[in-house]
Design brief:
Helices cover 51% and strands 14% of the residues. It is of the alpha/beta class and 218 residues long. A hairpin with a 6-residue loop joins strand 5 and strand 6. The longest helix has 23 residues. The radius of gyration is 18 Å and the shape is globular.
């Protein structure tokens, strides 16, 4: 199974990609995680990416696609792509790369979440600076207000979780990444799923879309 899971920041992509990967025994390929790993390992691709980042420039699409294409080749049991493709160009280059290998994406899932919900989800996040545990003031609060359950450290809000930053990220999403959904819809079926509700409910809707594909792939 080769799956692309799309959605705005705070739509729950990471959460649902993990669930999908666990349920179907496929790889969870996060572009952010792979980029950080390549940099940490000092690979040739990582060094190239680091050069752009050190200069304050965006990592070129071609470099990101090359990283993801290598990860895809290693995922022989299948994969779900998280945070990629982010631009139409990345989607086009990925399709060409897969087609050259006689391969392609089996299903595209798009999580639709209201901006109001996105802002509430992200601005309500609090994390432990010591152990990295993440909470939410409304959806997943700690036992004691403002304190980590695991080690008693005071929780903090990350600088990029403020409302101003979140709204800027949403603007970037609508300008740069939302067109990827339209790109995929122009050539295949995209399953739009309401991601506003409880994570378990949303996951079950996703599984109902994917279970027939999983049976077909066996």
């Amino acid at each position: 199974m080769k799956i692309v899971l799309l959605g705005a920041p705070g739509a729950g992509k990471g959460t649902h990609c993990k669930r999908v990967a666990e349920r179907y025994g496929i790889a969870h390929l996060s572009s952010g995680d792979i980029l950080r790993r390549e940099r940490a390992e000092g690979s040739e691709l990582g060094k190239k990416a680091q050069g752009y980042m050190d200069a304050g420039a965006l990592v070129p699409d071609e470099l990101i696609v090359e990283m993801m294409s290598q990860a895809v080749k290693k995922a022989s049991a299948g994969y779900v792509l998280d945070g990629f493709p982010r631009t139409v160009n990345q989607g086009q280059v990925l399709d060409k790369s897969l087609a050259a290998q006689g391969d392609g994406i089996d299903m595209v899932i798009n999580l639709e979440v209201d901006d109001r919900v996105v802002v509430e989800r992200i601005t309500g996040r609090r994390s432990c600076p010591k152990c990295g545990a993440v909470y939410h003031v409304k959806n997943m609060p700690p036992k004691k207000d403002g304190v980590c359950d695991k080690d008693g450290t005071g929780l903090v809000q990350r600088p990029d979780d403020t409302e101003e930053v979140v709204r800027n990220r949403l603007e970037t999403y609508y300008r740069q990444t939302k067109p990827v959904v339209d790109y995929y819809k122009s050539g295949r079926t995209v399953h739009d799923i309401d991601g506003n509700g409880d994570a378990d409910v949303v996951a079950n809707v996703i599984f109902r879309k994917l279970d027939p594909l999983a049976r077909k792939k066996k």
